[in-house]
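Incident log, structure service

09:12 report received: a user says their structure output differs between two submissions of the same chain.
09:20 pulled the input from the user's history:
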Amino acid sequence: MSDKRSIGIFDSGLGGLTVAKEIIRMLPSESIVYFGDTGRVPYGTRSLETIKKYTRQDERFLLSHNVKMIVAACGTVSSVAADTANEIPVPFVEVVSHSVNAAVKATVNKKIGVLATNATIRSGSHKKRILELLPDAVVIENSGTLLVPLVEEGWCDADDVVVLKTVERYLKPFIDARVDTLILGCTHFPMLSKAIAKVMGNGVTLINMGTATAVAVKDMLIKADALSDDQTVTHSFFVSDKADSFLHLASRLLEKDLDESSVEQVDINGL
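09:34 re-ran on a clean worker, output below:
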């Protein structure tokens, strides 16, 4: 049986588009509704109570669009607010567990790095799951606080000296520890993957949460017999701050031109 309802995806800003991109690529017959909370980004520096409040508002907004599934395309939400899934009537997909599974499969020397936000690192969610799957692993964690606003400003060029120097600062603990696998534990960070790969070198596998999550979404929809066979696919984007600044970066990240009519600014504070 076909389910033509959209897949709902949310993030604190535009980083979640790295997940949306992979879902669109892997499931071309699926419509999506994306919400980027650009007016309150980043979530990673907020308190637990605030993150959960924002998460519930994001979920309620997507539910108002009659989505069949909600994807928390945010490492911070997935780490500290995934329990809000118990409050919603549709399947919920987070990005942490799937990226950890991919990292455990990829590592050879069992030294795995996690580059994420402050809130995600404090939660210990990646490390806990890695050690459950690979008890003798060595897990090195570091927060990349300034990388989120760097991405939000569109500063992602691997040849930009500011980008490279900032990335080098955050990657030093992983280089010193000789990790062979690095989880990009915030959905913003794949936008810096070229710069990160340049600094880390060819011997390190970078784990993109978007790819791992898209595979999980596809598997869940197949098992639930909820794939869409709709020939009129729509991709709708909503933000909580000005749409024009989102438009340029979103077009570049999704590798498709978005027109102004496909992005709408909304206020979800009352939800």
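09:41 both user submissions now match this output. Likely a transient worker issue. Closing.
09:42 reviewer note: Strands lie at 7-11, 32-36, 69-72, 92-93, 111-116, 138-143, 181-184, 205-208, 235-239, 263-265. Residues 161-177 form the longest helix (17 residues).
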